[in-house]
Amino acid sequence: MANDPLVVGVDFGTLSGRAVVVRVSDGAELGTAVHEYRHGVLDRTTPGGRALPPEWALQVPQDYVDVLRNAIPAAIADAGVDAADVIGVGTDFTACTMVPVNAGGTPLCELPEFADHPHAFVKLWKHHAAQGQADRINRLAQERGESWLPRYGGLISSEWEFAKGLQILEEAPDVYAAIDHWVEAADWIVWQLTGTYVRNACTAGYKGIYQDGGYPSEEFLAALNPGFADFVSTKLEHPLGQLGDRAGGLSAEAAAWTGLTEGIAVSVGNVDAHVTAPAAQAVEPGQMVAIMGTSTCHVMNGDHLAEVPGMCGVVEGGIVPGLWGYEAGQSGVGDIFGWFVQHQVPASYHETARERGISTHELLTELAAEQKIGQHGLVALDWHSGNRSVLVDHELSGVVVGQTLATRAEDTYRALLEATAFGTRVIVDTFTDAGVPVTELVIAGGLLRNKLLMQIYADVTNLPLSVIGSEQGPALGSALHAAVAAGAYPDIRAAALAMGSLLKDVYRPIEANVQAYERLFTEYQELHDYFGRGANEVMHRLKAGRREALGEES
């Protein structure tokens, strides 16, 4: 090969897919392209107009294939390189995002008999309508003392594979019966690239309750629902591929879509957060990576196994070989800021921002940055999309306390920024108290561009904040895994050292701010426990009332 070898990483996010072309020798990002999903997130109606109940979030699988067809060729063109120099492709996905398919891998929503059936579409990670099933899984596991439950902080999420699968069985048994494979989107997209279905070890461990070589027993599943007894053996179980392994070669069909060379390496699927850790060179114990976008996923490595209350999971080798990979997260972060700007901010702010040629987010951030800590007189709970960690309850909802007639948009905006930082602080403290100390926060994702938000996080957590040296963290991480799958590096650690990028201690805690936020955090904690740990069930009652009202209307 005359030119330097290249790899392509593709990051499938909530609203779009992004491809990046990366040089194998040093991780230089040469070109990138984004393709928006045509259907976006389906949370009100199906493409055919069928109304969806509250807490639903679906997607159309063809949108993912369109990313391969459009973003990869566009990224190659943007880089100005020869596609023949690409030696591998790696992908990552949101998780837990599930695709119900037949034996050949065709999504059920593409079959005539299930066209426009809600349960036949992709269930996106933030589909929270299976909370009732998750509650039953947790109660039964606690009653039976299931050994796998502590590996997930004592609670299984409604976002994960088993709760979503059980929901289909109980609400659409005809769809459930037609499912031959209940597939993570991370694996389905690799299937489209290679023609081979390989289940990745990462999502199997974190989202599929795969621990110590096995899944929950048939006896346990039958106790949930007799029809669910063979869920693992008939729909879920499949040979596992390890992170960084070659899942297969690029198929002729996928080569035609992408313009890449047939047969080049395609790495085993992975999760957006988990691939980002090596891209940020955060592969040692104590380095917690927060990938901050619409939601935040927190991942870190540890040198021993510990039970952390409310964590999303701990998996041996779940991020890099030889260490225990821990995961936690917040279901809403950037989504909350976006919702507030879109639905709660007066028109005058939007007009001012347009006149100045900046976004409304930038305007609100400027105004909020002028305030002293506590000046707004507010404290908020960041539960607008429920709570992933450490309460694992998606029936919870957002709260802002302290509003008066003097409260302005920038006050509430800053309170919401601070609330998400407090949510991360709860996660950090919970890990540290459980014997998995956090010594450094490493930030990746689009929100790292907000300097006020980053300083708030440093002050609230009293930790130095390092930032990834790439704006395409997950895509770079996927490219890094592609390089390992192609044999350019012996393992993920070696590839991270050569191709990853980290800017150390960019934000440091300011002592006066740390003390001021400690007082506000105490108020947050009190509200957190009052609404989140059973003292007041009003949020659950309101969610139930909303479902009842909408059901009566329909």
Automatic annotation (TrEMBL):
EC number: 2.7.1.16
Annotated Carbohydrate kinase FGGY N-terminal domain residues: 7-276
Gene Ontology biological process: L-arabinose catabolic process to D-xylulose 5-phosphate
Catalyses which reaction(s): D-ribulose + ATP = D-ribulose 5-phosphate + ADP + H(+); L-ribulose + ATP = L-ribulose 5-phosphate + ADP + H(+)
Keyword match Nucleotide-binding: yes
Keyword tags: Arabinose catabolism, ATP-binding, Carbohydrate metabolism, Kinase, Nucleotide-binding, Transferase
Residue stretches making up the Carbohydrate kinase FGGY C-terminal domain: 289-486
One cellular component term from this protein's GO annotations in UniProt: cytoplasm
Domain of life, per lineage: Bacteria
One annotated GO molecular function: ATP binding
Pathway: Carbohydrate degradation; L-arabinose degradation via L-ribulose; D-xylulose 5-phosphate from L-arabinose (bacterial route): step 2/3
InterPro entries: ATPase_NBD, Carb_kinase_FGGY, FGGY_C, FGGY_N, Ribulokinase
Pfam families given in the database record: FGGY_C (PF02782), FGGY_N (PF00370)
Family stated for the protein in its record: Belongs to the ribulokinase family.
Entries under PANTHER family matching the protein: FGGY CARBOHYDRATE KINASE DOMAIN-CONTAINING PROTEIN, RIBULOKINASE
Protein name: Ribulokinase
Taxonomic classification: Bacteria, Bacillati, Actinomycetota, Actinomycetes, Pseudonocardiales
Gene of this entry: araB
